[in-house]
Structures
1.
Amino acid sequence: MESLNFDLETQTVRDLNQYLHGDAAALAGQRIAVTSPNGAHNIAVGVDAELHVTIKGHAGYYAGGMNQQATIVIEGSAGTGVAENMMSGKVHVRGFASNGAGASAHGGLLVIDGDAGLRCGISLKGGDIVVGGSVGSFSAFMAQAGRMVICGDAGDALGDSLYEAVLYVRGAVKSLGADAQYEPMSDADLDAVRLLLAAAGLDHDPASFKRIASARTLYHWNADANQEY
Amino acid sequence: MDAKPVQFVRMQHEESHGYDRKTIDYIHSAAQRGLYEIRGLGAKRHVPHFDDLLFLGASLSRYPLEGYREKCSTQTVLGTRFAKKPVVLDIPVTIAGMSFGALSANVKEALGQAATAMGTSTTTGDGGMTQEERRSSKTLVYQCLPSRYGFNPDDVRRADAIEIVIGQGAKPGGGGMLLGQKVNPRVAAMRTLPAGVDQRSASRHPDWTGPDDLAIKIQELREITDWNTPVYVKVGATRTFNDVKLAVHAGADVVVIDGMQGGTAATQTCFIENVGIPTLAAVRQAVDALEDLNMKGQVQLIVSGGIRTGADVAKALALGADAVAIGQGMLMALGCNSDSYFQNGALHSAAADYAALGTSPGFCHHCHTGKCPVGVTTQDAALEQRVQPDEGSRRVRNYLKTLNMELTTIARACGKQNVHHLEPEDLVALTVEAAAMARVPLAGTSWIPGWSN
């Protein structure tokens, strides 16, 4: 299998992305290593090919942004908006992730081994997110579809204004956002958590997670919703 | 002693200025319902506008072009700063961002057909890109909005330009709202929502929070499109001077400024009427910002919000805009607020449908209800048939043609071979307010309030 190295000390993010935007069939199966990323922004964005990218260090904003098909591993930590608007494929952050991780992801799987910052999974639209650590405040804000598994704790206002996304939390939740509520874990929930944990390489007991979903009281405009609407 | 109170007959029916019937009705309604009003279209209040400016046609000191004979170029190029493939338009009048969801698929198709025929662009909205509009519109601007409904990299790559929407003139700082009755199954699927629920759009982007972040976001979109595609930044007009400078610093190819008269599919009335500044004031500030940065001509300016006529277009260009964008005018070209609609080869009265909404033609702003009597702002299967793409396209085409003829007529009369040569020196103001905002002299004087004696 072909393996290629991009060294961002001597090459640019533009060189890397231009290569990754090449013919998808020709790129399929390739393994690309990105060395000396040094927190550069926009590494491996807009990829639409079944290839494997390993970023050997820390990435800046939007690493793996709008990913389709590719598997992108960030061996360090990731900046704001990692895997934002991902459509498919997988982005795996070995370290920590900053704000807005997985924002508005439509598909694919985002795994963060460490903690994630504010607004993790904001506007989630069908993607799956597994966070090994904790998430910051306003995570899953207005999340519409998809699932989030949080193995640690969650900050304030978790799941505020949720639509149909479902959250599973193992640790403590500082507070739920407007219209988010705890619900019993069904067998289907346990299976979902088990599969997502397995995909993330984690082995917690699915039964140790709590389910949070929308109470759907804000689905229609009404005077009783007051300032929460 | 007879101490009867004195009554002056005429004053028994004097309406209060502060508490007129409209205000009393507002308070009664608020007390009854406990909710603010949401409605469509734009500000109805009077604000200084392009109407308050006049052109100084050529005379002895300037030489006019022969009105119908001499060439007057209208070609408009947008996105020359960084993009490898700038947008090249035949006319400087573009069609503003309006969502599929707010508008029907037929309307989007009609707008696309007309724009293509006239060599201009259309713009998607808060609902993603439909196949109809991509197919029908040769030049399509793809909006990247806070909600990111339906936003995806395939459409990013398919777009001819990308417009990052920070805000819109009708509601700078506010998010969107599509009431449940317009969220039919197709709209719902495009926005990843259950059908029939209210769709609320966030007011902030999910993955960036300020101008420094925006610079990186713009770079991401450039990387994804391999630096081919122009990136516009659209801002609702408020602190326009600073906002334009920040947008330019962040790397925008084109800045779109939407004044407070700009329309909306559904926004709180208190917002529409009370937040933002008039388009007239915003154009001047935007041009000042570009000139301050020495970026005039490198970063293009599109102005929107209440542009209705060819004279409005000409005035916006003279003040320094490179192009304008029109939303509400396009809807009216398609029949918005008309008393009738054209279907199956005949005109039909829409009077009963206006009455059912409690309004009448000329006053309707019920876009938010989805019950548009003339089938423009609706997702209702029966109502949307009231605009057919071919007839709709014909009307929009005619409207665009008229605007362009008016624009070039005025430009020729001012002695310009190119509409982009119109300049502030061609203008005077009718009112002190307009003179101050647009920074052109009050007609018949050399006085610019705040700038000259």
2.
Amino acid sequence: MGTTIRTALAVLVATAIVAVLAQDQLPRGETIVDKYIEVTGGKAAYEKIRSEVVTGSMTFPAMGIKGTLTVYHAEPALMVSEINIEGIGKIQEGTDGTVAWSLSAMQGGRLKDGEEKAEALREAAMHSDINWRDYFTKAETIGVENVDGKACYKVVLTPKEGSPQTRFYDKETNLLLKSTRKLKTPMGEIEAESAAADYRYNVTIPREKFDLPEEIKALIAKGTL
Amino acid sequence: MGYSDRMLARLFITFVLLGATLFGRPQTAVAPAQPAFAAHAVGAQPRRGLAVARSNVSASAGGPQALTPAQRQANIDSFEHVWQTVRDKHWDPKLGGLDWQAIHDELRPRVERATTMADARAPMSEMLARLKQTHFGIVPAAVYRELESPGSVDGSPGIDVRVIDGRALVISVDADSPAAARGVRAGWQIVRVDGADVESRLAAIRKQFADSTLIDLVQSRSISSRLTGPTGKPVKVEFLDGSDKPVALDIDRARPRGTLARLGNLPPLYFWVENRTLSQDVGYVRFNAFFEPDALIRAVQDQVKACAGCKGFIIDLRGNPGGIGGLSMGVAGWFVDRSGQQLGTMYLRDTKISFVIFPRPEPFRGPLAILVDGCSASTSEIFAGGLKALGRARLIGTRTAGAALPSVFERLPNGDGFQYAIANYIAADGRPLEGLGATPDEEVRLTRRALLDGRDPVVEAAVEWIQKQGRQ
């Protein structure tokens, strides 16, 4: 299996939001999104990526809770993510490109459907970043805001199915510094915000990593949603 | 970056569900914060200010010695943190109409003047008590010592206690415990603990909590917290045995039953789970807290699989103070076969989270009885009340504690723990559990006679009901 891997350390931070520029002074959203592909290696380099692993650590300092996060991602649309939290255990989500699922001791297993499934499949598509026009109907720049003291273009991407995402691209480097959106889950609609701070490379993913867990296979056999 | 959004959303839900609902610890006294017993009514009945405290460690936590300037500042910082957190995170921005700033200005000088940790802690507890809601409290730092040195705080003689018909009774004795070694039996009455009269304490609680759903839990814990203490330091307990003959015993304290479990800043507690098939072909699972997800779910799963053809199933939540709120869904998934159902909804200040049940591939579909009592709290109530509202379970026993606000624990700058509720909780039938509790379909009480005879009338009632279902 291909071995070019991008590992992003996600740093989960709250950020201050400050300034806004007039709409007519702003570059077009699609220009910014395309430029992001260029500054992070270009379309050709992205197309060489066959798989990736994203690792991160997380802390809720106030709660004293720590955990790790790993996302395994491979062509064409395979993805498994694992959160391990001390005292809780493993919380998994994944898709084999057809079935989207989640599994944890706390909630058990379930199959996703509707908008939630569409989002999971879109995120699992290996080259959705460079082929973003296949998944989003438009990208609009709506202002400039500070993220950790850096002025960022605020770009709203509207997907063909699902809720809009707001991305914050550094005005100087055009790197993506933050992303926010509302996610619909059976348990409620959640506002999520994430920030990226570092990018690294190289790991191999065993193919069986993307096999459906037994409990999920049982749910499929039962026809449960 | 897309999946980090998703993972964060997932984490947020997880975070909120982790919060949920542990009402103190089984070894923890629920202390009325003074002078919080103003005659206010919140909700359906008068609610008293409550603080979670440990009577057996709070006196020594931090020691009676004078505070250093750094400790004084840490206490002031802690007070400010508690005050601001409630102001900013309570699900009701109006805090029930309280003048929160005035309360701050009234109580802060007491923290500034405090000369001991206990003195500094008191106004913080009192501030929280003004909210007149459960799941707000200060946990003395000493409680966390149990993590570094198991048994140093939570040593136990191995006795479980309930107050029945006004008497503090031993309802069970842990096998292989110091109490078992000394011959203590279920049904014995506890008269004095370390020389302190039990009845006068219970009478005071009865007076203060006469109208509260919390009375059973507060009474039980007032005794349990006296029995608990450092291992190696025996507790002197004076009983009346089954013939009402006085028996005085010095009983060692040992590490409690179970494994020491921890989750973030939640005070550590010992977790155990037991599962078996009763002789009447009924599955039975009992656990002392909604903790240790892997172990708990494995035990439930094993029993459900072993019991596929059983006549019924019993989940015994008596004495269970709750724990990780999200686990209520995970356990419920083994007993619900239809998707789209939920136990209830928690309402935070800015959003709401539904406690959705995701059916397991092969859940137990037969009659389900859930045993509850006045010491079943929080997640136990969410689970029991939710499945009752869905018509999936029959509740047998006595009314639950009515303490079901999802909460989280933080550590304060002075080292104490700080529990605060982050949401209100409404069960599937649209009723709040806080202050009301989950009411049993069939009220069955333990009796001293039954305990002395080695019987459990609540389990017997559940088995009888299950057997009737099979005949219908």
